[in-house]
Amino acid sequence: MSKLAELEKLGQSVWFDFIRRSLITSGELKGLIDKGVRGITSNPAIFETAIAGSNDYDEDIQNLARDGKSVDEIYETLAYEDIGMAADLLRQTYDTSGGIDGYVSLEVNPHLANETEKTVQEAIRLYETLSRPNVMIKVPATAAGIPAITELIGSGVNVNVTLIFGLENYKAVAEAYISGLEKLAATGPTAAAAHPIDAVASVASFFVSRVDSAIDKELEKLNQTQMMGKSAIANSKLAYAECQQIFSGPRWQALKDQGARIQRVLWASTSTKNPDYVDTLYVDELIGPDTVNTIPPATLESFMDHGRVAETLTQNGEAAREHIAKLADLGIDLQAITHQLQEDGVMAFAKPFDALMQSIAEKRARLSEA
What we know:
By secondary structure, the protein is α/β, with parallel strands linked by helices. The protein contains 17 helices and eight strands.
């Protein structure tokens, strides 16, 4: 049994945090699916690497440029094709899992992160254009994104909530999801080809490694090096414990009785940034039921080679709470740090998006003359 199959038996799905045209057309993605990969996530940085950093798309860009397509139209055409092909490859996973897995995620324009209504409109447009039941639209968990989540779930649109770093923010995301389900139960789906309450899906993408990157700097200043490399896991374990509590009790049971699904926590940013740490740290230590880990290529390869499979997420919960409490005792404001990480994350996605659009513009100009 492969390690990915072992993880599945423990209730965790592995999604692949990368997409590129040649990954799909070469058969590599099909091979990964056969090995147990059960979904795909993308983001503006991934698309910039794929489109700007390769020649995979040059012929399409040239043809679209000659047809007079704008830079925005070229980007969307390329992204739609990749997302659509990947979703079609994963459709069998979606069907056989009963809609639990088999999803491909596409992010709304990161420049809309602070605009609720425009985010809702853009997300519905993307979902309806792609017109596949196993597409998830990524919406950031910003102050403006939270009410958008409720509106989108209430419309029957699958949502991957991204850029969650902190516990309070996670709680707001889960509340937005539940409120959206209650709205969906009352009104039914309103977007084209959207899902009813027993089929709509969502994941809450909780970012991991960047938390250690930020807090380790503070711990080093305080000469608390023995605490380094532990904050991200502790923070994630507290979020998971909160998830288990939120998705229980009478309010959730009323929705569950109508077929509603738990909003699984998805561990994102799970490659280690510090070379001193084990390269599979954020996979090995976050294994548990009703979760997803979206893993970038190099980390997935490492995990398949030497990762450890065991239910670790529910272990050492008290130690996780004690670690977070000690951070507070040291004067480290975890909530302020995670809020800043979210703001930085929005900018970190906007920059490659802008760079991608610039690259397409340059390729469009060059290739249309070729």
